[in-house]
Specification:
Blueprint: H1 7-18, H2 20-29, E1 38-43, H3 46-56, E2 60-66, E3 72-77, E4 84-89, H4 93-98, E5 107-112, H5 116-125, E6 129-130, E7 135-136, E8 140-146, E9 152-158
Parallel strand pairs: 1-4, 5-9
Antiparallel strand pairs: 2-3, 3-4, 6-8, 7-8, 8-9
Amino acid sequence: ERKRPSLTGMRIQKACFQAPHLFSSLKTQFAMPQQLAHVTLLVTDYDEAIAFYTQKLTFKLVTDTPLSPTKRWVVVAPTGGGSGMLLAQADGAEQQSQVGNQTGGRVFLFLQTDDFWADYHRMRAQGVRFLEAPREEVYATVVVFEDLYGNQWDLLQPTVQPA
């Protein structure tokens, strides 16, 4: 037995059809909070990427779930929280050609810290390749480094702005 919509529900549907601009406004007012959950990073090998991010950058392995004999759902994330990275093993020549160059040579990701110098020295000791000396900018103490595939990252500690 199919349930019929209520009279109120039918009135709302009719109002939305007749005045879609009002419905759009309501959707905006009552939008559910959103957040960026994951960013996909193409890798050549799941295990070497997991090792780099968890050992050299001290990220946590959030999940590693087999999806097929060749595909896994692998997410790593900084220990301080925020969005995770979905490590996607490149499939085919086109994807493989983009590993390490997902942004055409620009800085791709920004790793924010509350102790720049401790993280910088720890990462250097772990063999992370830095492309420049650390510098003080108006917005942060910052340095560019590469991941194991050559993607460029900023390690940064924001400058505290006076109130």
